[in-house]
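User: quick one, fold this
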Amino acid sequence: MQVSIYTDGAARGNPDGPGGYGTILEYVDPKGDLHTKELSEGYAKTTNNRMELMAVIAGLEALNRPCDVKVYSDSKYVVDAFNQDWIGNWVKKGWKRGKNEPVKNVDLWQRLLKAKEPHNVTFLWVKGHNGHPQNERCDALATSAADKLGTG
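Assistant:
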């Protein structure tokens, strides 16, 4: 089954939180009907990169069988990490990067690698909000999740 996942993380401009993520799954069932599933959740004391990773993880973990997945993200960091195989290099270096600096968010990178295992996943960068209207909806979901924390 072909699934498109549109993700967005929002830290509301404050590296100490609040934050939230929004994820929308789109797929066509065997009858040819289009379906969408929306997921969002808020987290306090976090960063935008963690929210972007959580958004992708939430989408992949919501799939209950192996699928061909296209993940659309406005995070060039997340997309490049897979498309340029940064993760493979990090793993080889013991989760170090550059001048032996530790990689941040290793717990989420490991969870994301596990979540994508059963799927054929392609990561696509959506520049800002100029690419897909669904990304706008993901941003709205992420913002709503952050606002529900009551500290945004």
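User: anything notable?
Assistant: The radius of gyration is 15 Å.
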